[in-house]
């Protein structure tokens, strides 16, 4: 006799999914990332437009953002760990969106009254507006970092429960949302600015963030209600247990019965509370608290069992082999136009989505740690095409040209006019303004048309193909951190991980500044592949330490249990 309950109909299953905590998290994440991608694209364009088609403000903004996350990542993570989940999520959400709205209003004022502001106090009012925009936008980015840590690195883990497969599926879905919004959101706001104006673009983004903030706030509350486990944090549970034990011990010493001791609940804190020592209550102690938090966060990160896995992911940021402004600027010097680049970016997004799908399939077949190893091998193999592209016909690679030639030219005061801009301002960041650094020297010799595109074709073929392994590897390390970091340290560890990512990203920009001409781009490619290889060597060390010789064994789904040795929390991966 079948004792199973009645099977749900198709309509009931669909209804349950669309009202589940998982779907509500997806909806909130889609709204959040859509707004983030629109703002990140638009703010750079706005700053270029405001400063006379110069990248100075954009460079300052990027440096401030990267430096802030590098210095404050551990402190933000510690704040996430110390406070209730709902409070952290709601506070970071409101701060982030309010800052973006404020920036939008400031930019609208500047665009509308720029001429008048330039004349006031010799332009100091306008300069103050620039400083305010960059400062408030940086606060928005820090709040966005806190939101990302608490939702993607903590809430997702709690909602998935103890189900590793469910967690992998949720991580993959979140990453697919990231890929889609990364392409579609800039396209939307770019069209609005192209057919309207920058003033209208600012107003649209501010309005979007206002509506999105209200919807996201409601979605967070619904997820919190549907997942009771979110109301309890490991650190808070330990504090509550310690509080009860100390209060019980104190009241037994005073001769009170358990019944009597259970009455004055409001006095419990006052009974257990210990006065701060003079050293801890001093001004110097309070001032140096962030420094101690910063140090403790990095020490905790170093002591994690997944330290080398996290470092391997950070090393992948030290590369010019991505669809950022640097690679795009180089592509323009090699004859690729905006239409071709947009198609290549679309292919890159599709490749990234394929990587998330491959991750879920390979993880089920081979286990999580082996998935990272396989993804790393696949990525490195594809990047070999980029190395080959440096030496094939059509490549401008020439070590006889000094990589410091452009810097020297600017220092001695070269006043030659810059190339005329042929494109709209919405494409400034990926075309004319960035191609300045890459157009100071012409190719040494003419190359036949077929051979002239061979190098750049191999370069982008390798970059696009490698993104399958890249995103699969990224998801692997993300889930390893989620599963192997204790709940009370998730925030600070992920904060330090973000800091490491930004540090290596900064180094790769410094590398480009030191060698900006196209003849040296091949050297940057080789250095980038070397850093990616070092990153995967670190991961191999982590994987071999965790699995030993079993790393190279093909296992069936029933035999893919993997454990990461951890002194604090042994966790099945």
Shape: globular
Largest sheet, in brief, is: 2 strands, antiparallel
CATH first level of the domain at 14-231:
Mainly Alpha
Looking at the overall shape, the CATH architecture of the domain at 14-231 is Up-down Bundle
Q: Kindly state the mean pLDDT as a whole number? A: 79
Question: How far apart lie the N and C ends?
Answer: 37 Å
Strand content: under 5%
Structural class by secondary-structure content? mainly alpha
Number of strands: 2
State the helical fraction.
over 70%
What's the assembly state of these chains?
Answer: single chain
What pattern of helices and strands is seen along the backbone? HHHHHHHHHHHHHHHHHHHHHHHHEE
CATH superfamily of the domain at 14-231: MFS general substrate transporter like domains
Q: Are there runs of 5+ residues with pLDDT below 50, and where? A: 257-275, 414-448, 556-561, 566-573
CA-atom Rg in angstroms: 27 Å
CATH topology of the domain at 14-231: the name is Growth Hormone, Chain: A
With strands numbered from the N-terminus, the spatial order across the biggest sheet is: 1-2
What is the count of DSSP helices, taking H or I runs of 4+ residues? 24
